[in-house]
Amino acid sequence: MTFTPERWPADAQAALQQKPGWLARLKTQYAPYAVYGYLSSMALWPLLDALGAGQVFPVMNALGLVAGSVGGNLLANRIEAWRQQADPLAANVGDRHPDRSRRRRRTT
User: Fold this and answer.
1) For position 96, what pLDDT does the model report?
2) Measured in Å, how far apart are the chain's first and last C-alpha atoms?
3) Which of 78, 43, 77 has the alpha carbon at shortest distance from 63?
4) DSSP assignment of the chain, as one string?
5) Is the whole model's pTM more than 0.85, yes or no?
6) pLDDT in tens, 48-85
7) Residue 94: what pLDDT?
8) pLDDT of residue 22
9) Can you say how many angstroms the Cα of residue 105 is from the centroid of all Cα atoms in its chain?
10) Domain residue spans in the chain?
């Protein structure tokens, strides 16, 4: 059977009717990934458009700024997590110190 534009809708409808749960499973399993992929690609579209126009330096500058801010945020979050883990430990060590009067107070 040869593919023709006239037969395409009928063939697609017949295929979907043969597999009734296929479309429902497709929506629940793959739709989030398809939507995420679509939104990600549309977010990058202006960069690709600018690259196509020959604006390489502004595109690289924008990507560098985004990567730097993401990296900086990840590093800051990791340091904050370490600080939060160290606070109870420092309080525990300070309580066990024999001479509390000489202990320095930490300011936050």
Assistant:
1) 62
2) 76
3) 43
4) ----TTTHHHHHHHHHHHSTTHHHHHHHHHHHHHHHHHHHHHHHHHHHHHHHTT-HHHHHHHHHHHHHHHHHHHHHHHHHHHHHHHHHHHHHHHHH-S-GGGPPPP--
5) no
6) 888 888 888 888 888 888 888 777 888 888 888 888 88
7) 59
8) 67
9) 40
10) 17-54, 60-108
